[in-house]
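job 3f2a | input accepted
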Amino acid sequence: MLMRLHYRATLERRASLVVAAALLGVLYAGSTLVTPLYPLYQRAFGLADLTATLIYATYVIGNLGALLFFGGVSDQVGRRRVSLAVLAMAGLSTVLFLCAVDPVLLFVARAASGLGIGVGAATATAWIAELHPSADKAGASRLAAAVNLAGLAAGVLISGLLARFAPWPLHTVFVVYLLALAGMGVWVAHACETVQRKHECALQGASPAALKPRIAVPRALWGAFVAPAVTAFATFALLGFYAALLPNLLARDLHLGSPAWSGLVVAELFAAGALTVVLAPRFAAHVAMSAGLWLLLPSLAMLLWAQAAASLALLVAATVLCGVATALGFRGSLQQANLIAPASQRAGLLAAWLLCCYSGNALPVVCISLFARRIGPLWANVAFAAFAAVLALAALAVGARQRRSR
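job 3f2a | predicted structure (406 res):
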């Protein structure tokens, strides 16, 4: 009887792990659905390049607000309950995109999307770490990084293809995504809760301070948190560059304005990253971070070369190299964050790590767009590459110093 109960519990945990991973992938797929649609929105609403970039960056404002106010809430309330609320917010955002008849609604929808994904990513990542059987969290980090990148790839690829070949290019993809969110909600409702005792305490009347949502990096871990934080910022700065600016780069420099091309090239970046996470050896966290940061430098140089030469072949090669670099940096920094996170503050610390990711995702992109108005797109991208290279070298120096001190 005991063996049967243990076997059943093990099966439930494995099924719940699949649900948590699928949740993370579906949420991140929603974040890139709009990427191939920006040129279409620009034509439909007469938007300037800077306005389209600001709409993209509004997503990150929602991310930051979510993490600042609700970053660790699932540590107190429970993973399942927060995940269901996140799916509801993602559904609201999708409906806003579906009904958008004015640029203002695009800003609101993008912010709502960021709000839901900001909380959902921290919750699902912590849920995966708790359900995964590996003791050192390396397996959980690999899984979370892989489904994250796979979700980003799937979202942009499906959106680009539907926008090109399906009717109603600005609506069909959001109807499909609403159906995916509804199915995900049914799965999440039946998944295992991993913070049940805390959830019960909250229901019985815990103090408001105990339930106060917050980002939590314990003072003793600040030094250890710097290297993964800077690595995450640099990695997501490159991802943000692709997601926000590549469609116009393709249309302006390579004369490939179809949403399908945007979807394919951006999906190539994320797919290369996901395959790297799955197929690469099980490096230690600092080795993966260092490898990703070193590869970031030649990948940026190749990307600039592709733009200057207006070469699709060079762009494809640069995208693969960037995908490998970002995957290793992303996986290594997440693995390090998981390693240092206290069990009682896991979602809070991961929320702080995600705060660095999302800041890197938006701030450099807006600066590039502003610089492009003054010095031109190519030199603005050169400035971005120099900034990213400095960040990569700074993260390498901090990591090396920490290893020497230990």
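job 3f2a | The chain has a mean pLDDT of 82.
job 3f2a | closed
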